[in-house]
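User: I'll paste a sequence; please echo it back and then give the predicted structure.

Assistant: Echoing your sequence first, then the prediction.
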Amino acid sequence: MSLPSQNEIYINQCIQLAANGLGNVAPNPMVGCIIVKDNRVIAKGFHEQFGQAHAEPNAMMQLSDEELNGAVLYVNLEPCSHYGKTPPCADLIISKNIKKVVIGNLDSNPLVAGKGVEKLRAAGIEVEYGILEQACRELNKRFFTYHEKKRPYVILKWAQTQDNFISRWPLPEDKTDNWITGEQSKYLVHQWRSEEQAILIGHNTLIADNPLLTNRLSKGKNPTRMLLSRYADVDARLNIFNEDAKTIVFNTQKDEIQHHVHFVKIDWNRKIDCVMDYCYQHQISSVIVEGGTNTIYHFMNTNVWDEARVFINSKKQFVNGLPAPEINFSSSFQKLKVGDDDLYYFKNM
């Protein structure tokens, strides 16, 4: 096995820096930047919050023009070349007489897509790109899916017993008797909610569980809550309609906005496409689907999903209940232990 190159070492550090922005910068990508001069790291920065400064200015602002003159800048994603909520990073790099820029991935956003590299090279700056491309793409899988597939990155999530049920049926009076996973898994799920822009359930799960769909056990924001239901006349006293987060009801009856609750009328025969189109138009770059089984199958059957996260409690059996979605466990790409639960990660290749 060959040792990593200097470029790979610094780009890997950019990736680690960038990951600090998870859950805070979407729909922007996560970006980290390292500035090196005379073989010494002299500044680091990352994109911390959507609408605020990008990674490159966050790193460069720590240094004087003299310190930046002749330095090498490392960044995991191509510097932007257009005006958005902030000025173009490529222009700032050029103005500081940076000698060389090393990039992990080119940006697939049509507003950039190689234009940043062109601008830097036209100014006489040496540019290398394609360093640790796979790792950089994995970091920004939500961003790349959004721009390349014109839809959000979709994560399917459920928990099941050893005998393949997601719930007892009929539902027990004591809802705690229906819990499958342990405390550590619950904390992890709430962390996931803080990392994604939206969370979606179907009508049956709403009525059976009356969930809040908020992040209460981890730091970070609440996701936008989404309900996929034929019906718009849903009981407004249910938890999903409280003011803790915005709620979108995809239904077949009406378009209407009531404070923080948005009703969006869709074609039920194209329901998943309609939800994906809405997300793309409203810059929602990731959705975690928390069930139930019918809703998850809607995404599976239309092949609109990117990742599945499945908890299994190997010690718990329901004997009878609502069957869990079927997925080929022989194809799992990763298995972790979370407390007493097994967590399987699947990729839709």
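The radius of gyration is 23 Å. The chain has a mean pLDDT of 94.
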